[in-house]
Amino acid sequence: MSTVKHNPSNIMSFKRLFSGGIAASILMMAAALASAEDRHHKQAHHDHAHHNQGSHAHDGHHAHEDHHAHHYTQAQTQGYADTSRSRMTVIPEHIQSKTEIAISNYPLFLLSEAVTKGAPSGKLLLQPGDVGHHGSLSPSDMKTVKDSRYVVWFGSQLESNLANSVGKSPNNISLFRFNAFNRLPLRDVKGEAIEGTLDPHLWLDPDNAKAITRALGSLYSRANPQYKAVYAANVQKFAKQMDEAVAQVQVNSQTSRPYWAYHDAFGYIESALNLKLAGALTIDHHLPPKASQFHWLNKTRPQPTMCMVLQSDSNKGVLPKLKPVNSTIQQEDMSDAKDFISGWTALAKDINNCI
């Protein structure tokens, strides 16, 4: 997957093209949804055929349902309703009833909740804090995956723990497949971009958050068209609130403000806050920092008192080795947030106060 180099000119170039990228992505989303439905219906038909093998009456019934499923999927893919035929065609109950959408993780669920306010919510699969390599699906979760119209996740680059479950489900929609999001590479402990990599925490970019809600609005409108106006209004409201949140926390500064991170997880919020990563302690928060990295951070510190963004209380033991230093504890998945806007705003304000 291609990545965008981490520099201001590339970010600005992306933002100039963002509206066009969204339009292209929505078209890609529509094609992906049709493809997911087709795969899901084929899998359901295959399962029915195996389950009812030897029962001619049931075989005939499911063949009838499959004919209607094909007609329904084809009409959705073409983007119109054939009213002359729809009067004679009843959408099969096992398709019509699948209006539920499963959402893989908490930050994505917060964005989903912004879209579905006033309409049925999506179903959260993993608990808050279970993003990335953490968490697994229970048997009931797997049933939810199978019974949902769509299962939305970011993709295996972030959620490798779901690659063999959600990733192999025929109704999965991976947001990383779409090109309408600003993408940044992972960085090493010195803040240098690692070529050919993707920083998966893209929801922290305000423009990405708005783009995700647009994509979710399109998806929910397909699954529950009776709420289409509600979704559209919510997406518009979220974009306005996100812009207001950014304006509230932006800092006027001629130069980027340096900060340290325990590990590089906040790259996507840097542009909004005018920040620049001056270094991290470890490339992976599961790995302990090396003594040489403490030495390098102290030697290259760009200002006398630095801010270190930690991710848990257990990280505080590193602070005495980096004095003078301020610190703030932040979770990039906003696992303690009630809604996306307030969670993002609190995270941004805390980092600003630390710096």
Automatic annotation (TrEMBL):
Residues 1-36 form the signal peptide. GO terms for molecular function: metal ion binding. Gene3D superfamilies: Nitrogenase molybdenum iron protein domain. Residues 41-53 have a biased composition (Basic residues). One of its GO terms (biological process) is zinc ion transport. The gene is znuA. This is High-affinity zinc uptake system protein ZnuA. Keywords: Ion transport, Signal, Transport, Zinc, Zinc transport. Residues 56-68 have a biased composition (Basic and acidic residues). It comes from Psychrobacter piechaudii.
